[in-house]
User: What shape does this take?
Amino acid sequence: MAINIEALQGSDWYYDDSKHVGVDFSEPVQVATYDARQRSTDAAAAALLAELGLQSDQVFADFGCGTGVLACQAALAGCEVHAIDISAQMLEATRKRAEILGASGIRLQQAGFLSFVLPANSLDIATTQYALHHLNDFWKLVALQRIHAALKPGATFMLRDVVYSCHPSEIKETVDAWLKWMQEERGYSRDENVTHVRDEHSTFAWVMEGLLERAGFRLQQARYARGVYATYICQRPG
Ligand SMILES: C[S@@+](CC[C@H](N)C(=O)[O-])C[C@H]1O[C@@H](n2cnc3c(N)ncnc32)[C@H](O)[C@@H]1O
Assistant: This one.
């Protein structure tokens, strides 16, 4: 049964997702250092969109768009693009990247997974990278249902995030190895990454697969790396 989004949003217990949980992506230092530390590149974004089958004239949305690496490549590919993020500073970084790359027509929306406004059945492809973990599992499901409702039947959704795929007995080793790698290879301080594990809401792989399926998606591919990274390619069934 489809979610009644309006009824849910009218509840007095509906979550305000405009606030930053864990790392605050409205801080200028987070925005300024983001691409270099994440190693986000335009080439990798373009390759990912090609893998997802993005074509010109399609309608594309990226949720938690950050500095707009995917949004800009989708615009350059000739798509109608919605770049959505709760951080005005990140949206400004997206606007600047678009200006530099000559990617025109991106619709910036300051909103979150639980508050974005898009017509139902309107998107051909949607993506979200490293953002959904800002919601707990209850609200992740609502967010996934909202994205599902915004997609056209048959459309593609890619979710990439920190998701724990290690065995429960290996949590300590996996997390400690990841924190060490992030410090040595990506220049994050231990404190910043400890925040992710302690205060944000990355979940387990079996939970995430269940959330995707219960939100109505057909899981086509699940890729896991380092016990902490996951990429899911899904379809809204036609
Ligand atoms: C780790 S960054 C990822 C940025 C980008 N997706 C990327 O892969 O480069 C997380 C982004 O999610 C945004 N964010 C945090 N909470 C959010 C929410 N509830 N809804 C949408 N975006 C959110 C942050 O402002 C930030 O830009």
